[in-house]
Design brief:
3-stranded antiparallel sheet; 10 strands; EC 3.5.99.6; identical protein binding
Length: 261
């Protein structure tokens, strides 16, 4: 996997936005997989600026959701559909008709999971998937010990993940749902390009396990080692426990500019 160490989150956002612009310029109807949380916000902000500057046309782009809470109405401000509408669709001027996501309020949640997994395949697959990483190494909501071949399914959140997400619910963990629908690791690995962003010292252990540790269900993100085109973008703090940090800095600094990420 390619590891890029950037000065700060804003620099990482610019780098990923450039990769998306290049993708859209060669494939205007690309399916872009997006994640929620604070880490990818600089990407969406940088991409919005590039689109408004005329660097890319998003009139045909499609957006795919990584995960969703079970039981939150679609119009709840913290449902991921609502969050992505605020942070991605509205700023970029992308209509809801171009959005793919699972139904977290379905009466038959397993059937909704299977339907969404099929929809991703039938749409031609995700071209570039943006990912964050949890302090325990989870991607999407694939918590430790998730199957590395898993498909889109319902998962029970760990207490730590609910604690981490309570900040989005005014700090009240009792408001954080216990269950989510998430793309499985096997589903995520089918995207053509995976871009994982990590910032802050709190993610350093997870990044080190992902990049340099063994492939293990104990660190779900380590499965990204199996993918032919994975890019890990970290700030210095998140990269602080990488033994090969200097190698990664040297490699990217000497990479031809036309290659991008």
């Amino acid at each position: 996997m390619e590891v890029v160490i950037v000065p700060d989150a804003a620099a990482g956002g610019e780098l990923v936005a450039e990769a998306i612009v290049r993708l859209l310029n060669r494939k205007p109807d690309a399916l872009l997989g997006v994640a929620t949380g604070s880490t990818p916000l600089p990407v969406y902000q940088a991409l919005t600026a590039r689109v408004r500057a005329g660097d890319a046309d998003v009139s045909r782009v499609r957006i795919a959701q990584l995960d969703e809470y079970v039981g939150l109405p679609a119009d709840h401000p913290e449902s991921y559909r609502s969050v992505l509408h605020r942070e991605v669709l509205t700023p970029l001027g992308i209509p809801l008709s171009a959005f793919l996501g699972p139904d977290g309020t379905a009466s038959d949640v397993p059937a909704a999971c299977a339907a969404y997994d099929r929809a991703l395949t039938e749409s031609g697959g995700v071209d570039l998937q943006i990912l964050g990483i949890g302090t325990d190494g989870h991607i999407g909501f694939n918590e430790p010990c998730s199957s590395l071949a898993s498909r889109t399914r319902i998962k029970t959140l760990t207490e730590q993940t609910r604690v981490d997400n309570a900040r989005f619910f005014d700090g009240d963990i009792t408001q954080v749902p216990h269950h989510v629908i998430t793309q499985g690791i096997g589903t995520i690995l089918e995207a053509r390009h995976l871009v994982l962003l990590a910032t802050g010292e709190g993610k350093a252990d997870a990044v080190a396990s992902t990049v340099e540790g063994p492939i293990s269900a104990f660190c779900p993100a380590s499965a990204l080692q199996l993918h032919p085109h994975t890019t890990i973008i970290t700030d210095e703090a998140a990269a602080s426990k990488l033994k090969l940090a200097d190698y990664f800095r040297h490699t990217y600094a000497n990479k031809p500019a036309w290659q991008g990420i």
